Amino acid sequence: xxxxxxxxxxxxxxxxxxxxxxxxxxxxxxxxxxxxxxxxxxxxxxxxxxxxxxxxxxxxxxxxxxxxxxxxxxxxxxxxxxxxxxxxxxxxxxxxxxxxxxxxxxxxxxxxxxxxxxxxxxxxxxxxxxxxxxxxxxxxxxxxxxxxxxxxxxxxxxxxxxxxxxxxxxxxxxxxxxxxxxxxxxxxxxxxxxxxxxxxxxxxxxxxxxxxxxxxxxxxxxxxxxxxxxxxxxxxxxxxxxxxxxxxxxxxxxx
Length: 255
Known about the structure:
With 255 residues, this protein is α+β, with helices and mostly antiparallel strands. The chain is built from 9 helices and 6 strands.
């Protein structure tokens, strides 16, 4: 008897914990589902609440840099919030199947913007969906790219170890998500995303070098105006360019 891809997901363990020191997966051995890469679930001991974002839980290692990012944004008059931070595999299953009588029906379309359970970066504790408070743009909509917060993240987020997982035109085949950023500011986090970085680089990407010098000074990333490898992905450097990307995207959300 042949099982569907979504039926196989029900066999995934709900507590597939991935320790901070887990070795990076070999890119050649990684099997994608609806273009998404597999991820384990962070162990509870590796998670902690984010003080500045009530209800948001992230990997303990990422919290200091996230707090610094939020403070820097506030200093420039940008009020960033979070719609989603860590999500367990069980929670991701509920999100992915929400509103579907049969979770298999329309799964490929839903996977354009919602990862199947076991294949979401949120389960690592290193990913966050930002929102811009006080702007006329609903959460997890592509108009976020043209908000002051979206543009600020494009300029400044890499300084704090965050990179845009799914840029416009990404080769991974996942919908453009200008709100979804992952933290790669430590070796353990970079190991979790080794396969993604090798085959489908983020843009803007966080610098590979440490975020701070020995003296504790911040290191600014290189220019973000051109994509590595000859400009494979689209990247906006102004609100006007973001609006053009938004208008040309024409990707319909599945709900």
